[in-house]
Amino acid sequence: MIRHSILLLLLPLSLLADSLEAQPHLYISTNPVSYLVTLRLQDDLKRYLPIASGVEYGIEGNLTWFPESRHAWELRMARGHIHPISTVAQIHAGRLVFPWSDQLNWKRGLYGAVFAKAWSYRNTATEVRFNHAAPYLAAGYFKSGKRFSFDLRINQTLAIVSWSSLAHTQPGSALFLSPWPAFLPVIPTVTLSVGVPLSPHFL
Amino acid sequence: MRSGTIITYFTLIRRLPWLALLILLGSCADPDTLIQSLHDISGAPLQYDDSQAEHQLRVASVAMRCSEEKSVNLARMQTLVRQIKEQAPATQLIVFGETTLGWYLHPDDPTGYQTAIAETIPGPATNSLGALADELNVFIAFGLAELHGSKLHNSQVLLDTAGTVVAVHRKHHLIQEDLDGGFTRYDPIEENVTVTDLYGIRTGMIVCADVSSVEMTRELVEADIQFLIHSLASQADPFTFDAVARQFDSWVVFANRVGMEGDIEYSGTCYIADPAGTIRTEISGEEGYVTATIGVYDE
C-alpha cells in the first residue's frame, strides 16, 4: 500500500520530468523590479517606479515555453502589496513571435507579443475587490545564456474591462492606454525578467 | 585567513552599495504613509447605481478664491452660501476647502500669518457662519487655522442646520507647508475621527494629506463611514477617476481653492465621487461650485 502511494506521488513528477525532456526550451523567470516596488520608498519613487515593473507587484514568476524557434508562449503571475491597505494579484498569458529568429539562432532575438492580463485589486481595509481584464501588446528582446535568461520588453495596454465586488455596481469597459491618463494619456510600461532555462539541452 | 573567506568578504563589499541603496530606499518613507499607486487610479469607469438608496443628501463643493484678509474671505463665504441656496435651494451641505479663512501658505511669514488669522472653535467665524447655517437651514463645512489651547491646528469644522459645531477634525498627516505655517499635528488619531450623522448618512472628515495616513484610513473605515468630506488646498488638475472613494468605500466630496496665493496657483478642482470612484460632477480652474445628490444604502 505504501509502495503504491509513493508510486502515485512520483508519477506526476516523472511526467513533469518527461515533459521537460520533451520540451527543451522552457524558462522560468522573475521580474526583480516587482519586489522592489513593494518596499517603503520615497514618495515619487513609489509612485512612478511601477512603470518600470510593468505594474507588477511582489512575488512574481513566469514560464516561457518555446515550442519552436519563431514563437513562444508565456504565463506570468504576480501577487504583492501595493501599499499597507491593498494587494494585487495578476495573471498574464500571451504569445511571443520572433520574426527574425531561425533554427541556428534561437537563443536570442527581438520579438513582438500579444498578451491578455487579468488582475484583482483588493482593498484590505474595506475588503472590496476591483477586478480588471485587459489585452496588451509588447515588444522586447530575449536572450538566453547557458545559465541565465534575460528579457526586456515594453508593454502597451489597449483596452480594459472592470468589475467590482462593491454592491450596486455594474461593470464598465473603456479604451485604456494609460494607468494614469490624467498624468499622461499614453503610458507604456517596461518589464525586465531574469530567469534560468529548465531544459538540459541548453546546458 | 583563508582565501575563500577573503573572496566572500570581497563579494560582500562589492554588494554593499546595492544593500545601502535598498536600505536607503526603504528608510525614506513614513510608515504611516499611503502612496496612491497606478493600480489605485486605474480601471474602466464603473456604474454605481444609487437610484434606490434609502438616504439622499444634496451636496455642494465650493472652489473659492481666497484673499489674504480674513474678513474678505468670511464675507465671500457668506455670499457663496447665499448664492448656492438661491440657485440650488435643495442643497443640504455646503463644503469649502482647507483653511479658507486665509491663504494656505503665506510667502512672507507663514507662521505669523496663520497665528494672526487663527480662531478658536467655536469662535467668531463659526458663530457668523453658524448663524447663516441656521438662517438657511444648511450644513456648512469649512477649513480654518484653529487656535486650540496653545497650539495651532489645520482644522475642518462642520456646522449643523442650527449653526452648532457638530464636528471638528484636526489635520493629522502634516506636509511641509503645514509645518511652515506653524501647524501642529493632532494626535492621537482615535480621538480625531469624528463621524457625524447627516440625515442618516455616516459622515467622516479629513483634511488634504490625511488621505495618505494609513491609520486614519483604517479608523474611518472601521467607523463604517458612508460619506467623506475631504477639504484641500490643491494644485491638482481635474481627475478622471477618484481613488479616495475606493480607499474609504464611501462617497467623497473634494473641496478646494482657486487662484494665485503668492507664487502658488491652486487649481480649483472640486468634485463629488461615488463609492466606485466615478466622478459625478467636477469643476476646475475657476471660482464656483458643483452640486450632486448622493444616495446611500442602509447596508
Could you explain how this protein is built, in words?
The complex is a heterodimer of chains A (203) and B (299). Chain A has 203 residues and is an alpha+beta fold. Chain A contains three helices and eleven strands. Chain A has one domain (23-202): Porin, CATH 2.40.160. Chain A has helices spanning 2-22, 32-36, 43-48, and strands at 26-30, 59-68, 71-83, 86-97, 108-123, 128-144, 149-157, 159-164, 169-170, 172-175, 189-197. In chain A, a hairpin with a 2-residue loop joins strand 2 and strand 3. The longest helix of chain A has 21 residues, at 2-22. Chain B contains seven helices and 14 strands. In chain B, strand 12 (270-273) and strand 13 (279-283) form a beta hairpin. In chain B, strands 2, 3, 4, 5, 6, 7, 8, 9, 10, 11, 12, 13 and 14 form a 13-stranded mixed β-sheet that branches. In chain B, 48% of the residues are buried. The interface between A and B is large, with 46 and 43 residues. Strand 9 (169-170) of chain A pairs antiparallel with strand 1 of chain B, so a sheet runs across the interface.
Quick recap:
The complex is a heterodimer of chains A (203) and B (299). Chain A is of the alpha+beta class and 203 residues long. Chain A has three helices and eleven strands, in the order αβααββββββββββ.
